[in-house]
Fold TetR family transcriptional regulator.
Amino acid sequence: MAAPKIPPLDTSLPSAPSPGATRSRDGEATRATILAAARAAFDEKGYAETSLREIARNAGVRPSLIVHFYGSKAGLLAATVEWPFDPDTVVREVLAQGPDHIGERLADVFLQTWEKDGRPNSALTLLHAACERPEAATLMRELFTTCVVHPIVTAIGPEQADLRASLVASHLLGLHVGRYLLTFDAIAKADADVLKQALASTIQHLCTGPLW
């Protein structure tokens, strides 16, 4: 009986990862470390009391690296909750068209955020969590109002800017609650463009019209 053949020993060394792949993995690990430090700081101290310098120190990186990755503290907060737009970009784009178009632009931005291809967007996860957990509610309020709505309303300089910003935010969030959580029949079935026009006129009045 013939002896079984023994396959030749593979003495080749495994190929080394390319420098580009190594840098990519390092960058992903650094981002993960920064996000973990940011979430912990925001949960403990809130958005306003947390500085980029503190997050950078806890993550073991330079503050400039956080700015490089996320642009600003608002951008970092958006990344920690996986928000699908950059708050600073939205503020600039909404204000760029002047005060007469604020209602339309804000309604458009947030309806696009809530929905994608006619279906709820994954960003709704945070809003659902905000109804159940105080820390999620705090993050939602700071991202939604402090980083987006309040800077826009304040920039046009109306009286009672704080109140107006809170009213605008409550209307935007109220649409979400009525359409996706309580599912009021007419709102749930309404076309997004119809809702945008109705919401836009209300927001515009709250931003630039008389409150009483």
Summary: The first strand starts at residue 115 and ends at 116. Residues 35 and 80 are 6 Å apart (CA to CA).
